[in-house]
Amino acid sequence: MISTFFRHELKAFWRSKNTGKSIAIRVVMGLLILYLFINVLVMGFFLDKFLEKAFPHDDLVMSFCGILLFYFLFDLFARLQFQELPTLRVQPYLQLPVKRNSLVRYLAFTSLLSVFNLWPFVLFAPFIVKIIATDSGAVVALAFFISLAGLTIFNNYLALYLKRKANLNGWIFLAAAAVIILIGLSDFLWHLISIRKFSFLFFGNVITHPALAVAPVLLGTVMYYLNFLYLKENLYLEELGSRKAAKYKSSTEYPLLSRFGSVGDLAANEFKLIFRNKRSRSAFIMGLFIMFYGLIFYTNPKMNSESLSVFVSMFMTGIFVINYGQFMYSWQASHFDGLLVSKVKFADFVRAKYLMFTIISTFFLLLTTPYAYFGWKILVIEVIMYLWNIGVNTTLVLFFANRNYKRIDLSKGAAFNWEGVSGNQWILSFPLLIAPYVFYGPFALLHHENAGLALLAVISLVFIFTRSFWIKKLETDFYTKRYTIAEGFRNK
Questions:
Q1: pLDDT, tens digit, 9 for 90 and up, residues 451-475
Q2: Which key words tag this protein in UniProt (predicted)?
Q3: Ordered DSSP codes for 114-149
Q4: What is the pLDDT of residues 140-196, one digit of tens each?
């Protein structure tokens, strides 16, 4: 049956109206992956030299054993972000005498064709052959290859399992990413654990006891079985839909959003869109990484100036407004025609955007408050730029949204995806990044920085308190361009 599924997928590919575009993309991606493979292979051949320079006082094999868990931890994080879920148009087969186990096995098998599963062998095989096989023999080298295969399979199916669960609940993805980040911080920043010691504890013993290589294989087998059961239980789309309906509360039952009525309901749907789709979710995840910008600037006396703090604070508290907002309305491209003919008032639609940006910017402000350790003035600047983001920048983003006609397909991944990108993004970035300095800059040049900050705070508050006025202006502007936007979103 697997060969039959392959033939059907190939026919679906060649009969698609976007075959030419798909081939061009695959050729470009294939060349890029080939280039990366060559670089990784070269790195693998010289891995012993890198390890000697990185750990000059440690044994070479000990250093190699110590980095393997680091690699697989990073590999899991990268898979959660970039690895695509294997797909198959299941509905036609459900009406045919095709066993569900065959469908699930096909999905499980095709997931092993990911390039992620080749990286560890390309990177580590030269070292194992050159060093470990020479020093410890072919049996130990084979044990290392088996261990790498077992951990690769484990990561492969664990990532797919988490991503499938995250499609139902976006918080699962964030929780998994947070656990991986905390493990890394516990080693590098807080020094509570040592991943190198754990890694050497296992792989160091594989050298003396090659039979331990069976353990990663067992882990991979268990993870495959869990993934297999989950797919089998949720193969029927109607069953999956009914479980979602029973498991999740409606948006009006959210404690924070219920008080906003229909606006809260629209904002809740926006949050679901963000956390359930890869590309929109990547905008939020990037915002979490930007939170570490403060450590780069505030800890460097040469870069820790008040003018630069204005930019850094605006960037940290408003990165989501900038990154997600530049594609505003494109996120709803697939159902934009439905919004035009629905009973939803566009004013409520815009208010929901304001509410969503305010909630996420507030969350990022809370994450940046520990930077008050470097001075209370930094916290004051962060609060002012937070007000600027939810007042001025949000309004600018929604204004430019009425001039964005590029659609985004949420079913596609975030990696190397330039869909929806146009010149508008470049035009939008300039006023968002430069506007604060138009008002703050002259005062900074005259050494009256406090007056400049006060002016930014006043302008921000004026925009916030006159939000109803700006919503009416945005609504009027939208109605003059709605059909042009809808036509652009229909072009695939």
A1: 999 999 999 999 999 999 999 999 9
A2: Membrane, Transmembrane, Transmembrane helix
A3: SGGGTHHHHHHHHHIIIIIHHHH-HHHHHHHHHHHH
A4: 999 999 999 999 999 999 999 998 887 777 678 778 888 888 898 888 877 888 999
What's the predicted TM-score (pTM) here? 0.59
Q: Which two tokens stand for residue 460?
A: 């921000």
Which letter, b or e, does each residue of 69-83 get, where b requires 16 or more Cβ atoms within 10 Å of its Cβ?
bebbbebbbebbbbb
Rounded to an integer, what distance in angstroms lies between the CA atom of residue 476 and that of residue 81? 39
Tokens 């004051």 appear where? 380
CB 410 within 8 A of CB 334: yes
3-state secondary structure at position 459: helix
**Radius of gyration over every alpha carbon of the chain, rounded to an integer in angstroms:** 26
Whether 464 contacts 387, CB under 8 Å? yes
Q: Tell me how far apart the alpha carbons of residues 385 and 310 are, in angstroms, rounded to a whole number.
A: 7
Residue 455: HSE in the Cβ half-sphere, 13 Å Cα cutoff: 15
Q: Break the chain into its structural domains and give their ranges.
A: 2-10+20-246, 251-490
Structure tokens at 148: 């790498």
Q: Collapsing DSSP states into helix, strand and coil, what is residue 408? A: coil
> Cα dist. 320→80, 296, 446, 472 in Å?
20, 19, 32, 24
